[in-house]
């Protein structure tokens, strides 16, 4: 690993892109020195993020007004939850931005232990490359999903306009289909469409980016646990002096404190992200039992969105669980320490490893380990078995209904 490859430098460009959508409004996020990172209440980024949140709140109010007039149902309740999750993600990232300068300084202080000899020889984890690959794969897939859903909306709105004999223009039909809650209170204007699409992107972006952000944090922490494990593995079955185990134990405890610091800071985001992912997957699975039509574009958008949510959730778990994976490897390595080399320092190190879980969590309700995949899979299968009793799985897929009442 290059001497200057710190987590801050590896993730700074990713965070800068997120600020375009109003997330994590920290000043100097791309600064080379973490001491230059600042959170300023009176800064352009703060005003920009506040503007995006205010616009999202206004649109959420329009959604509430629309639901109050047409009555709440299973479909528009998902729209409500989307806006609630989006607003909470913006607020949680803003809360994290206040703590981010101090977090980065603490992280940088711990990293200095792993950027010098002997850890520099065990640094082929390629943290920056992994972060860029994860960000590119997840966000490009999210962009494809967004474009596919937009294309689906254009298609459905045009089918509604032509088949239902609506006396509106093509672009007005898009506005009417995409924003029925605004159509009730704001007359159509062409100039509004690009502006509303930008607001739509600020709503859609945080859902995928939150998972991506959790993965970036997991990669950054796992890179240091990987170096610690490699140093211990390099002396496998060798007799090492007590000073070696004292130093390794102190470095482990420094990483442990860093994990706790990050866990306390991002736990609300983890809880919200996985709660939203599970609810969305269950909602889509419920729809999969229903008649969703024979229209190819509708089917493509539906299944891509469902598969992407499942894959993104699994990827988040596997990447973030690598922290716990490396700790378990360290535990295994300690078991191979020869009896003649066993000392009080090795014993203390072993006790520290066995005390509690070292992993990111959702406010303590669950931990991001590989066992979480089994727990979530069991929950989804149970849910499917329950709804299969009340929904006819053999229903004939009839023609999609395009006409809607406004």
UniProtKB/TrEMBL annotation:
Example GO BP: signal transduction
Coiled-coil intervals: none
Topology in the lipid bilayer: Multi-pass membrane protein
GO annotation, cellular component aspect: plasma membrane
Domain of life: Eukaryota
GO molecular function, one term: ionotropic sweet taste receptor activity
Keywords annotated in UniProt: Cell membrane, Membrane, Receptor, Transducer, Transmembrane, Transmembrane helix
Keyword Metal-binding: no
Localization of this protein: Cell membrane
Keyword Transmembrane: yes
Entry's transmembrane regions: 46-68, 80-98, 131-151, 203-223, 261-286, 298-320
Function: Plays a role in the sugar gustatory response.
Family indicated by similarity: Belongs to the insect chemoreceptor superfamily. Gustatory receptor (GR) family. Gr5a subfamily.
PANTHER family (alphabetical): GUSTATORY RECEPTOR, GUSTATORY RECEPTOR FOR SUGAR TASTE 64B-RELATED
Annotated protein name in UniProt: Gustatory receptor
Organism of provenance: Drosophila persimilis
